[in-house]
Batch of 2 targets.
Target 1
Amino acid sequence: MAKRGKINQRQRILEEAAKLFKSKGFAGTSMRDLGGEVGMEAASIYNHVKSKDEILESICFYISDTYISQLAEVEQTATPYREKIETLIRQHIRLMLEEGAAVSVANNDWKYLTGDKLTAFKDARKRYEHGFAALIEQGIAAGELQPVNVSVALFTILSAVRWVELWYRPGRGVSADELEQNILTMLLNGLAK
Amino acid sequence: MAKRGKINQRQRILEEAAKLFKSKGFAGTSMRDLGGEVGMEAASIYNHVKSKDEILESICFYISDTYISQLAEVEQTATPYREKIETLIRQHIRLMLEEGAAVSVANNDWKYLTGDKLTAFKDARKRYEHGFAALIEQGIAAGELQPVNVSVALFTILSAVRWVELWYRPGRGVSADELEQNILTMLLNGLAK
């Protein structure tokens, strides 16, 4: 029970930290700010996390590990390429809707990672982009996808999806399902009839 | 001739300022930095521009005026909606490729505008987004476009196009024409066959 409580506290600290980093930036957030949000003395927070840097690492790698494991699963599933890409886009949108603050931190504050952690994060991003690009390439080779330039296709998808963070607010007339379905329509079928 | 020279000097100051604002941010750029780039004493720069704020205004409104006049022209041209939207996407990409630094400043540093100028810039952006959205809506009503949610379609297009600034570098294997054509294919026809 004691251990479980400690894990939950850590989880709560990470969640509040992600929200603070998103709104004030990693550099602009102090352990005192974080203490205020979780209702703990800054000193007590160190019973659950090692440092502000360690919090950032946990958030960034939670997101990049999620992306990488989703990619690995899609790569191994025997479905048409079109479906593989649809699944990745769908997962991207869902992660953003469910873990918006953490995704935002991984997108914007990863540059405050240092040393090995920075290298590992950049490597994970490259692994994801290369894996996603390879699926597009294979889909084109298999005749399932249009013969577009793979980089342009990849970055158009990632840009469209990433920006959801900046403009989408739930409850303003577009539901999460509608958002997902419409982005998939735009990217896979296009706007023109 | 003297007047012409003065206009050219002002133009050159604005171009160098856009590059500096893009790389160092508006807040991080001083008139002394700008003087260094254009090879003038900071004091002499004031013969051509009123202030750093006025430089920012000129850059932001140059870009927003360009968008608005392109939109107005497209609205008045008697072509199918699909073509209207294609033209706007194409112009967006071209402006980014030709005036990358100024577009970046208008995208990122507009928030340093103040008072009436800030209001006018936000109004111009709204006018553009509403006008673009109306064309999508009319295109759907006319049966030329897929019945997507208009906001999702608009922001997917704007996000995909805006991000070109962040990932595209000419001369890395994708030409400007190829970039334009591939983005149009993705957004209008979709990736799937």
Target 2
Amino acid sequence: MSTTPATAGDLAELDTGTLFGALEDPALNSMNFLNEVAIHYPEAIPLAAGRPSEEFFELEDVHRYLRIFSEHLGRRLTEAQVRRTVLQYGRTKGIIHELVAENLRLDEDISVDPESVVVTAGCQEAMFLVLRALRADERDVLLAVSPTYVGLTGAARLVDLPVRPVRTGEHGIDLEDLVAVIRRERAAGRRPRACYVVPDFANPSGLSLDLATRRRLLEVAAAEDVLLIEDNPYGLFHGDADRVPTLKALDAARRVVYLGSFAKSVLPGARVGYVVADQRVSGADGTTGLFADQLSKIKSMLTVNTSPIAQAVVGGKLLAHGCRLAGATAPERRLYDRNLRRLVTGLAERFPPGSDVTWTVPTGGFFVVVTVPFAVDDRLLERSARDYGVLWTPMGHFYDGVTAVRALRLSCSAVSVDQIDRGLDRLAALINDRSGRSAGTIGHGHLADSARGEP
Amino acid sequence: MSTTPATAGDLAELDTGTLFGALEDPALNSMNFLNEVAIHYPEAIPLAAGRPSEEFFELEDVHRYLRIFSEHLGRRLTEAQVRRTVLQYGRTKGIIHELVAENLRLDEDISVDPESVVVTAGCQEAMFLVLRALRADERDVLLAVSPTYVGLTGAARLVDLPVRPVRTGEHGIDLEDLVAVIRRERAAGRRPRACYVVPDFANPSGLSLDLATRRRLLEVAAAEDVLLIEDNPYGLFHGDADRVPTLKALDAARRVVYLGSFAKSVLPGARVGYVVADQRVSGADGTTGLFADQLSKIKSMLTVNTSPIAQAVVGGKLLAHGCRLAGATAPERRLYDRNLRRLVTGLAERFPPGSDVTWTVPTGGFFVVVTVPFAVDDRLLERSARDYGVLWTPMGHFYDGVTAVRALRLSCSAVSVDQIDRGLDRLAALINDRSGRSAGTIGHGHLADSARGEP
């Protein structure tokens, strides 16, 4: 509120200067800005959206999964108990924890006590719970492989937890830099609590950690006594390469807090994710308990419990496939793999060897990062949307600051191959115009005019 | 993490001393403790639970509401767009905001722009969003009518926002005390941002504010320049008394942030609530926007968006009843009214005039507060559950401290009239034993033995 005294009848007015400071932070405005551009230019080809393909969405699936889950419950509960479980307030940590634990055992070779699972209102809430629990005072800091998913940075802002970048390096995380950052922070009197990492097909880089790097990361985390927060939304979409074990599967020492999502493997609209927090927590009174139970206390004051109706939808899909989603999502895996190859091949066709445009070549996931010879900012994105008809994400959004970066992120998850081809033509036109090259030099015409106003 | 250096292979251990301090706070442990007692003594009669009656729960309703909502969307959207709306990621502020605004207009005579509505993962998330936005630094404090809903206190803890109690007084809020607390806080260099109030059938007191008090409260809030946070989960359950307008309906000056819940009027398992935040916010750059849009930024980093599947369930019920829930919930209103009368009558029968046991006599809602001549704490609740077979809530949970209070809360929403009668018999036995009176003096036998082990 303003501090000027008001008289009865005045309109209440608020001033951002007296509200939570992070509301002005780029991290909290990132999602809104990107959404607004997409809404404002609906005809632009969305190589920005990290949402899953809608090709496999069926409204009837929601009904079917709900029925499968209710029938499953009905095998050991009375009808009244089934109704209560799905429709009433319920267990804070969730009602599908056993199915989640079984899924982790079958798909990920991760063995955890279901009691260490907290089912959350999307994986975003899981991030918030973990960061809120770990942030005790102003000495605490979080480390994160940079560039970093903006949702992690945003959640950290909500609890006033600074995020210190760790370099990606050649192996998806530069372990020497990790150690250096930890020691520098400790020397300055701060407490590095954990390092956030997406080991499989990271958002935004698309890069993965190889097995040796994963093992060494676990050793470094133990030696330096920090937790690892492993976020794994894309692991199932590994193209035709073999999967590498998750950090949690390799974690014999409960060093890893594991974040899971069903947004891409079941339905985003369920908004169901989870966190595995099997660390032991000792209290001042000598008792010990699970870190999951501390997270549960926070959740009870944040969202009470995750909608059991939404959980039932996810539980039904898990049951329909014997708790194995790796097989159940094979069609999605093939679609994303096809799109990713088309994207990478398409970039190679448009920017031949020797070009000053380069890009990452991930083996799975949704994202490719393109490095260009000029600064990429939000204004350029708006120009791209308006004049060239193609959307992408300025990489600056994934750095903890406002600096323009000479790179942009492309996503191939929510588009057709035809859209990828046309989107890349438009992107190439933009890049060539911006680089001051004639479009003709690489054999593609300027598509801005034809793009404008296209449905 | 402990600060002792660990070697690779050691188990990671956490220590509550290095975690978020509020995890040890009574407010965050309240829900867990009360749930645990209930789970441990399933045979005890639950006069503690504030959950809605399950008498009207039907699994088929979920399917029916989903279909109604999808068909409604289908009238102006393509099939693909309907699937996207219900199953994909979506608008942060929600997809049923127009239906919510229409419901507020019809049921509450509240007129608001749908853009000022943020649909949330239960009303608890709405509380968190508002408190997070209002808490800028350590000077900020929140006021709340005391005794206070523990979920409000818990949400305030998550953002380190102190809660200052305001006396209930004779009219549901002591306005002189409100002014005194605001001025005392300001004199101490703090910023009172808002006062939290449940004007209709408050949890836990059961008390309501009359119309004159509501009008005066709005005047005081304007004169003292604080917001009011109005929480209205029980307004529809007003027995056979007339409804009094909500603060928001009387609010011509956008002084009230309104919190709504569909947990009691549709289904708790949907976990759908909302906040109306129509205040104007001016930015440093001279632009103005809605407070709802600031809350939306926080939500985007907390839960991204509320499950559109869950929103569709609520939207379907709204559509099925022309957006009027007052009529649609008349059967619930009659059931709660019947139970509340039985509870109050039953107390009068067991504690005749002149007794040192007194209680509130609400005209609606779920709760009655019983004042007794001895301190009521968690240990007494456990004894009551074990030896007397009846559950209730120690009023200490609704005060911002750990002091035992000479009062307990009874709830009548999730029990039958027979359970109310038997529960009151058991409670009377406990009270009489604890007061050192012979049970015979009020004509009821000791029921502890018969209660034990009863299903």
